[in-house]
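Moderator note: this is an archived Q&A kept for reference. The question asked for a predicted structure of one protein chain; the sequence and the answer are reproduced below.
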Amino acid sequence: MGLQDTLKTLVHKSHLSDVSRHLKHRIEQGLEQRVKLAVTGLSRSGKTVFISALARHLQQSDQGLSLPFFSAAADGRIIGTRDCSHESAIPFPLQTTLAGLQASPPHWPASTDQLSEVKLALRYRRSPGLGRMLGEHTTLYLDLIDYPGEWLLDLPMLEWSFATWCRQQQALFFASPRLEASREWLTCQQQLDWLAPADDTQFQQLAHTFRDLLQQLREPPYCLSLLQPGRLLMPGDLSDSPLLNLFPILTDLPANPDQAAPDSLYSRLKSTYYAYREHAVRPFYEDHFRHFDRQIVLVDCLKTLNRGEACFTDMQQALNTLLHSFHYGHNSLLRRLVRPRISRVLFAATKADHVTANQHHNLDRFLQLLVESAQREIRFEQVETHCLAIASLRATSAAQAKLDGQYLSCLRGHRKDNGEEMALFPGEVPVELPRAEDWNSERFRFVDFAPRPLPVGPLRPEHHIRLDQALEYLLGDLLQ
């Protein structure tokens, strides 16, 4: 073979090799996974801290140090993690949040008042086996969204008419403790003629009065969760919108609504309700919540135990209400093409660091009892569920105290309210739902702790509790 023929052969082989590499790259790209994780929780349940801690640990997961029960990291198969949040139109303020947790003294992030998004790309090696035939390396793209928990509770309104919503609110406001807190508001409503013309000033004043009432019900001593419309509490970009001039009719609904004047309170409220539903609630749902693949539901069990029976019952009802708004079902390829659904749900009790290690199993069990009804319905749809107590960022350390010659397991940390360092026995988590005598005995007094500084350098397992187990349950099967 002459030199010219040899060169042609080499060029041909090189071209085939380039084509082969190109095809392999395109196949690997086609097999890359994109996962949207729904980080769900009521207001002040710890969503922002969870997202920040999870992102920070995943950014260091190639080092294999801090997530021993997250198999892809523990096996050394994570090659690297890239923060792609800049590609989002609403990037999550990760660096700002981390800076607050790394400050001296550190502080918890402020309540979320806008929607934002974290986008991470995890490059990893597949596990040995048949999967390697698809390529040794691939990428998992993970999206997490932070949002005010108040907005979540509006999702059921998408399926309710104005009359249905009013009846739902009547059932709530004619029961304690709303009834005691809203007597003036109920008296005011009884004096209104819903069908007569009403001017703008009266309408707006009534809306502001109801908004103030919701704010009151959210704060101590009530601390209620099931408060609608959620945007009245956390308006976001709707702070000056007429869509927020909305409140339910808590008296009997008009028997002849067709006779309502176009500018009557009834007509105005009904029109505003449907406008709020279509322009505030539906975009939030359509753009984000319809397309989730996996879900973690964060629940602050200790806070609700501290605040009494009414707060506890209201939070339980709020959780069950909002979970009906998500699509659950087996996430096969065909179903994903037609209608994405959540295929795996983790219920997580936050603040596992606020009780001693021997109480973590109790916290698992208590959470399971709390969400039993919702969990049963989700499992009926053949969706995997699990309950787990976690602490995204550990705020305490273990300690011991000697009492009557015996050592007790205790916690050491700084109180959230005054920064005072203390060591204490926090109490036991019940393994049954509380009875009347439990609420009356002031049995539950769990202390809220300030955060410990999050290291700027490498993280370790002692900086969280079971965050790696949560990651393994939510993502482990996808990183094979």
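Archived answer notes: Residues 57 and 66 are 7 Å apart (CA to CA).
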